[in-house]
Write a structure and sequence with these properties.
The protein is mainly alpha-helical. The chain folds into 2 domains: 1-59, Orthogonal Bundle (Arc Repressor Mutant, subunit A), CATH 1.10.10.60; 70-212, Tetracycline Repressor, domain 2. The chain is 77% helix and 0% strand. The radius of gyration is 21 Å and the shape is globular.
Length: 214
């Protein structure tokens, strides 16, 4: 009488695992080949599933791509919320956030590639997301609190907008990695070398902190 229960648990676990496997494979395919270049046949083959399973979980290639984008944003924002910036002095908190942002691109450039693809398409798929607009709110709020605390203790200058500070930080980190190959050619230097990355990291941190310091 109690035999069916474990079977249901197994099926549920397999379902979650299959969906996660599809997302993982699709993330790599879309990041490496772009939206048009990535093929659902290849995703199915690499995920070791029947192609029909993709449409079972995501209904279409576009919905799968949107799920990949949302998952990438969610990973980035979730990691940022664990920094516990409110416990640090304002400039220390800002330094930690800049270092974290830079290091996130060192570890994985998948997000950069996905963003490049979506910007080429003028965010036509991301516009259809029902939740991406709210994903950045926590990090903007966190930077706003850093600025407010810095204003209060005199370490951060007045008149800064949290959204623009975040764009500046992300842009300074993002540009280096999104253009690292052309920069290597232009400057005839290996910009991917650990020393080059460390030099750039230190520069970005100093640049941002000096820019906001009172």
């Amino acid at each position: 009488m109690t035999e069916p229960a474990p079977e249901k648990v197994v099926r549920k676990r397999d379902s979650a695992g299959t969906r996660a496997r599809i997302l993982n494979v699709a993330t790599r395919e879309f990041a490496n080949k772009g939206y048009e270049g990535a093929k659902t046949d290849d995703i199915a083959d690499r995920a070791r599933i029947n192609k029909r399973m993709i449409y079972h979980y995501f209904s279409s290639k576009e919905q799968l791509y949107l799920a990949v984008l949302e998952a990438a944003y969610d990973r980035a924002r979730s990691a940022e919320t664990k920094l516990d910036l409110d416990r640090l002095a304002p400039l220390d908190a800002l330094t930690r956030f800049v270092e974290f942002t830079f290091d996130s691109f060192v570890r994985d450039r998948t997000f950069i590639n996905l963003l490049a693809t979506e910007n080429r398409q003028r965010a036509k798929v991301l516009k259809k997301s029902a939740k991406v607009n709210t994903m950045n709110s926590p990090v903007i709020d966190a930077i706003g609190r850093i600025i407010a605390r810095g204003n209060a203790d005199g370490t951060i200058r007045e008149g800064l907008d949290a959204r623009h500070v975040w764009i500046t930080i992300t842009g300074a980190c993002y540009f280096f990695f999104s253009n690292i190959y052309t920069l290597s050619v232009i400057f005839d230097a290996d910009m991917e070398a650990p020393a080059s990355i460390a030099e750039r990291r230190a520069h970005v941190v100093e640049f941002v902190v000096r820019g906001v310091r009172a």
